[in-house]
Amino acid sequence: MDTDDPKSQQPSGEPWWETTALDQMTQAQWESLCDGCAQCCLVKLEDDETGDILYTSVACALLDSGTCRCTDYSNRLERVYECEKITPETAGDFQWLPYSCAYRRLHEGRGLAWWHPLVSGSDQSVHEAGISVRGRVISQEHVDMGDLEDYIVDAEVFEGENGG
Fold first, then answer.
1. Residue 42 phi, psi (nearest 5)
2. pLDDT, tens only, 125-139
3. What is the pTM of this model?
4. How many angstroms separate the Cα of 110 from the Cα of each of 47, 104, 114, 118, 124?
5. Which of 106, 103, 81 is nearest to 37 (CA)?
6. Does residue 156 sit in helix, strand or coil?
7. Predicted pLDDT at 1
8. pLDDT tens readout for residues 49-66
9. Helix (H, G, I), strand (E, B), or coil: what is residue 152?
10. Which of 85, 113, 114, 145 is deepest in the core (most CB within 10 A)?
11. Collapsing DSSP states into helix, strand and coil, what is residue 136?
12. pLDDT (tens digit, 9 = 90+) per residue, 83-124?
């Protein structure tokens, strides 16, 4: 197997993400698990009483809402205080990750969804399935952050027809 090619398969023909433990993946494999939904780039609030995480339709200022990719990925952790680096070791620590997130799915022992680009072969399938935030968010640059409660959305709005 070519470990530098995240699309390669095991000699058995099984996809590497079904046979490789999270902590055994190469950096390229790990990065390719990101489906490009950008739900992790949404500003979230925590309910003080319940501890529940509430999603908003407000996105990080670094998010390109058309491509659902970070405009400064390599420097995001320095530029955005709230940005979290998800690693194989911490994938289970972030309960705010959406149910559809590949990192969360694999950590929980669920496979990748049919719309995941590694499964579908298309980086557009996440958008076509209605999983991504494309066209449904506003940049935090255009929002009074004191009004975030006005932007709370049901997280299921990003789960598409067959997303979770």
1. -80, 145
2. 999 999 999 999 999
3. 0.85
4. 28, 8, 12, 15, 22
5. 103
6. helix
7. 44
8. 998 889 999 999 999 999
9. strand
10. 113
11. coil
12. 999 999 998 898 889 999 999 999 999 999 999 999 999 999
**Apex CA 129: angle with CA 124 and CA 131, to 5°?**
90
Contact criterion met (CB below 8 Å) for 34 and 91 = no
Q: What is the dihedral of CA 77, 86, 125, 68, to 10 degrees?
A: -10
CB 144 within 8 A of CB 56: no
Whose tokens are 């046979």? That residue is 19
Looking only at the bridges linking them, the beta strands covering 53-59 and 152-153 are: antiparallel
Q: Is 45 helix (H, G, I), strand (E, B) or coil?
A: strand
Q: In Å, how far are 41, 58, 83, 142 from 61, measured between CA atoms?
A: 9, 9, 11, 9
Residue carrying structure tokens 């149910």: 99
In one-letter notation, the amino acid at residue 96 is W
For residues 37 and 16, give the distance between their C-alpha atoms in angstroms, rounded to a whole number: 21
Q: How many CB atoms lie within 10 A of CB 123?
A: 15
